[in-house]
Amino acid sequence: MSDFTSDFWHVYVGGITLISILACAFFLWASGKTRVMPAADNTTGHVWDGDLREMNNPLPRWWVYLFIITVVFALAYGALYPMFGKMGGALNWTSHDQWAAERARALAKVEPLYAKFQGMDPKDLAKDAQAMAVGERLYMNYCAQCHGSDARGSKGFPNLTDADWLGGDGSPAYIHQSIAQGRMGVMPPMAAAVGNAEDVRNLAHYVLSLSGSPHDSVRAAQGAAKWGACAACHGADGKGMHATGAPNLTDQVWLHGWGEEAIIRAINQGFNNVMPAQNALLTEPQIHVLTSYVWKLSNAN
Fold first, then answer.
1. Does 275 show up as a binding residue in the annotation?
2. Please, what is the average pLDDT of the chain?
3. d(Cα 186, Cα 233) in Å, to the nearest integer?
């Protein structure tokens, strides 16, 4: 990947861009200097379709002037704005700076609104219809892509409308931290610690038995002896641990799929889930409102 960030590509892209513009100017100049010996009827001798002849007339002046203006504009644009490789241009314009300025103006317009919400307790804020309307817009813009427009999640993305929280108690403080700083959930592949393929299958049936799901009781009994490899994170009783983010295996909530094959895949391959931190996109007042909205999703009553 470093090959694509070296100075070679800066020179390559900038060089080709500049050469292309100068080549256009050169060919325009060359075409004005080149003279073709015309025939007696002022044609070039090229004939198409039997009687369509190419006349030896110069380019229209308006076309030549327009071409010159285009070349001059391209050179001027390249001098002012970033066009030649990584050269910034005389105006030092960047798309990021423009975005930041536009974002700052937009935030300044809504600052009075968020100031009203900032001093409110998240649970009280959840009762404010205006705040929840703002929170819904924030959710749809920044959260719905993963958790769904109804917040019920999908395979690999938690349901935010239930009371099942992997890394905490579902309090506003926990939700705020998760939104601002993100979360990372890792389950390492455990097959080597469990044993052979039959041991993994037996353990999968034991895991199914913990939640009362359909399972093979004989295999589950054999798999119980292998539970020790999982108890360090999921607990001796399989109810999980908030400290490690390990899910409760005794309920009917299956984040990564339900059934024997899904559990076997989890044991063999593990998981590596990441929720990106949103504090680079959202301001603290926005996170405060969004926290209340997400908290309300699982505390509607």
1. yes
2. 90
3. 11
